[in-house]
């Protein structure tokens, strides 16, 4: 799920215009006098993820524990946002979710401030309309653990109200994993583990439902889940204004073909918390034109497109996204034709929705790409790595 921060769209454009070759300076860390050099490094852990499947794969979520004694809270591990928030007993609307009860945690500290968080992409395949994906939050601090790694004093938010699209979620909250949310100066769970000696990266194996066994490895890479050698690309510079995992892409292709709209340079956000692909309207329509002229917008749900369900499975629709590795080698990440259909429209069951939603100002790939590529999210190295997922 992509969090909207102030006017995210304008800020993304600003950042795009400033892209310049980056040299990442590596500095050895010199421990100040008096600090213990015997700090033990934390070992990586792998946690299983469940698939929220509703006709198509939507979200992958796993358990964390919060509080003392620990309460188990299922959360989406979301590279498109930067904070931790989850349903609580302070939220009468959150009846379908596991609710954290702050009165039962001896380490819970109320932070005393309330706020809202609004998302530009939601938990499903429908475009977000206005602020219909919004959570009302109360700040707090408590102990958080994932897979046995424990971080005390983590800054987090209790959900005290939610808009109705969240009601069907089988998970309680969202653990943001954007680069800024896990940077050393952040107060979050991941930053705390990095400060305790965990390597500053994570990797994801999020799979189609038929494959299962999805997982998140915090602090490392599960080399049994991909083939070949990962290829790495430097992420676009992040700042306080721009918190996304983004790579520059010189070209898109469809079944090996391209055109002048698709060869426009763009920066593409990788969001593990969004299932569909989002491109600007002209790019979306240029891609669909190369797949079938019969893929049409659905006027009942602006931003969505579809075609007769009985035709969709036979359409070749390999979408290729080109990138350049940190060593200057071009490489493509592809989305196979099997991802074209995300299932029938509720209001028109003979028409199946196609995977790209038009959204001007945002170019984003999510689960439909990440299902096929083992992904490495390297905060320390400011880069992302990919290798074909072993499915
Ligand atoms: C989360 O924990 C619950 C038990 O508290 C368990 O039933 C469920 O399978 C776990 N989910 C995942 C994804 O591990
Ligand atoms: C929760 O939000 C809904 C709108 O989604 C609103 O109608 C309701 O009054 C809110 N409840 C509280 C307790 O603020
Ligand atoms: C990437 O895809 C394009 C379009 O299919 C193709 O022309 C190009 O050769 C591919 N590049 C690599 C490195 O495979």
User: Helix/strand-derived class?
Assistant: mainly beta
Strand content: 35-45%
Please state the CA-atom Rg, rounded to the nearest Å: 21 Å
Number of strands: 26
CATH architecture of the largest domain: Beta Barrel
Structural summary, described in words:
The chain is mainly β. The protein folds into two domains: 46-223, Cathepsin D, subunit A, domain 1 (Beta Barrel), CATH 2.40.70; 224-388, Cathepsin D, subunit A, domain 1. It contains five helices and 26 strands. It has helices at 8-17, 189-195, 281-291, 309-312, 367-370; strands at residues 45-48, 50-53, 57-66, 71-78, 84-87, 109-118, 134-146, 149-162, 173-176, 201-205, 215-218, 231-234, 246-249, 251-254, 266-270, 277-279, 296-297, 305-308, 319-324, 330-335, 341-345, 348-354, 356-358, 364-365, 373-378, 383-388. It has a six-stranded antiparallel β-sheet, with no helix packed on it. The longest helix has 11 residues, at 281-291. The chain is globular and about 60 Å long. Residues 5-38 have low confidence and may be disordered. It comes from Macrolepiota fuliginosa MF-IS2. Disulfide bonds join 91-94, 309-352. The active site is at residues 78, 271.
Helix and strand topology:
Blueprint: H1 8-17, E1 45-48, E2 50-53, E3 57-66, E4 71-78, E5 84-87, E6 109-118, E7 134-146, E8 149-162, E9 173-176, H2 189-195, E10 201-205, E11 215-218, E12 231-234, E13 246-249, E14 251-254, E15 266-270, E16 277-279, H3 281-291, E17 296-297, E18 305-308, H4 309-312, E19 319-324, E20 330-335, E21 341-345, E22 348-354, E23 356-358, E24 364-365, H5 367-370, E25 373-378, E26 383-388
Parallel strand pairs: 4-9, 5-8, 15-24, 16-23
Antiparallel strand pairs: 1-11, 2-3, 3-4, 3-7, 5-9, 6-7, 7-8, 10-11, 10-25, 12-26, 13-15, 14-19, 17-18, 18-22, 19-20, 21-22, 25-26
Bound molecules: 2-acetamido-2-deoxy-beta-D-glucopyranose (3 copies).
């Amino acid at each position: 799920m992509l969090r909207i921060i102030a006017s995210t769209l304008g800020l993304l454009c600003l950042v795009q215009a400033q892209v310049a070759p980056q040299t990442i300076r590596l500095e050895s860390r010199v421990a100040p006098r008096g600090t213990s050099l015997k700090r033990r490094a934390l070992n990586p852990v792998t946690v299983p993820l469940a698939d929220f499947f509703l006709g198509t794969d939507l979200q992958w979520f796993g358990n964390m524990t919060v509080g003392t004694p620990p309460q188990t809270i299922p959360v989406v591990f979301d590279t498109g946002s930067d904070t931790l928030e989850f349903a609580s007993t302070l939220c009468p609307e959150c009846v379908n979710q596991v609710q954290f009860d702050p009165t039962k945690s001896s380490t819970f500290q109320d932070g005393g401030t309330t706020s809202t968080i609004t998302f530009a992409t939601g938990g499903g395949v429908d475009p977000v309309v206005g602020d219909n994906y919004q959570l009302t939050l109360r700040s707090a601090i408590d102990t958080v653990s994932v897979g046995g790694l424990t971080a005390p004093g983590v800054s987090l938010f209790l959900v005290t109200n939610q808009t109705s699209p969240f009601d069907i979620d089988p998970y309680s909250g969202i653990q943001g994993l954007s680069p800024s949310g896990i940077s050393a100066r952040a107060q979050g769970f991941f930053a705390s583990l990095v400060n305790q000696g965990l390597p500053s990266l994570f990797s994801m194996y999020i799979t189609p439902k038929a494959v299962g066994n999805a997982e998140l490895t915090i602090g490392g890479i599960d080399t049994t889940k991909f083939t070949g050698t990962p290829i790495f690309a430097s992420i676009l510079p992040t700042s306080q204004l721009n918190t996304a995992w983004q790579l520059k892409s010189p070209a898109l292709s469809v079944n090996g073909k391209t055109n002048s709209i698709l060869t426009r340079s763009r920066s593409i956000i990788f969001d593990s918390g969004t299932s569909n692909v989002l491109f600007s309207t002209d790019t979306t329509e240029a891609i669909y034109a190369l797949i079938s002229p019969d893929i049409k917008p659905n006027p009942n749900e602006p931003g969505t497109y579809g075609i007769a369900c009985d035709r969709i499975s036979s359409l070749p629709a390999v979408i290729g996204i080109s990138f350049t590795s940190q060593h200057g080698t071009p490489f493509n990440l592809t989305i196979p034709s099997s991802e074209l259909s995300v299932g029938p429209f509720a209001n028109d069951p003979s028409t199946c929705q196609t995977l790209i939603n038009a959204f001007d100002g945002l170019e984003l790939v999510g689960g439909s790409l990440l299902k096929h590529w083992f992904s490495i999210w390297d905060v320390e190295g400011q880069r992302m790595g990919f290798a074909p997922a072993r499915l």
